[in-house]
Design brief:
Number of helices: 6
Helix content: 40-55%
Strand order of the largest sheet: 1-2
Radius of gyration: 15 Å
Shape: globular
CATH architecture: 3-Layer(aba) Sandwich
Number of strands: 2
CATH superfamily: Uracil-DNA glycosylase-like domain
Largest sheet: 2 strands, parallel
Distance between the termini: 36 Å
């Protein structure tokens, strides 16, 4: 579809957000990179984008951060937590942040672990949001 968070993982993310962030709260998310990199030999989606894909999207991510001026940064997955702070270091300042498991990671986990992983994310989101805007 060319849009982020519209597949099964996106729907799962929406469910987690609806359970952890107060209704009516405005928030936004973006992917670390602006496109889905494909393996040049197989044409399949890469499991992890290469560093050059991430570097190529740095200016876009900085511009998006500057335009939105978020109250809370939510790093979705370890890859975002690892790279986004470096990418945004010129503009991030004291913006609070939280890392959650990537919804696709949760959906790929053993069925007996999915509920626990989702609950962890919901608690982390709720607690982080409560620090920014106490309810």
């Amino acid at each position: 579809m060319g849009k982020p968070f519209v597949g099964p993982a996106g729907k799962f993310l929406d469910q987690m957000l609806s359970r952890s962030i107060p209704q009516g709260t405005r928030f936004g998310f973006t992917n670390l990179i602006a496109c889905i990199p494909l393996d040049p030999n197989e044409g399949m989606k890469l499991k992890q984008p290469h560093k050059d894909h991430i570097k190529a999207c740095t200016n876009r991510l900085v511009e998006l951060f500057e335009l939105t001026n978020p109250s809370l940064l939510v790093y979705i997955g370890k890859l975002a937590e690892k790279h986004a702070p470096k990418m945004l270091k010129s503009v991030i300042g004291d913006t609070p942040s939280v890392m959650i498991h990537h919804p696709a990671y949760i959906l790929r986990a053993d069925v007996t672990q999915r509920g626990l992983l989702a609950q962890q994310c919901e608690i982390w989101l709720h607690d982080a949001w409560e620090e920014v805007i106490p309810f």
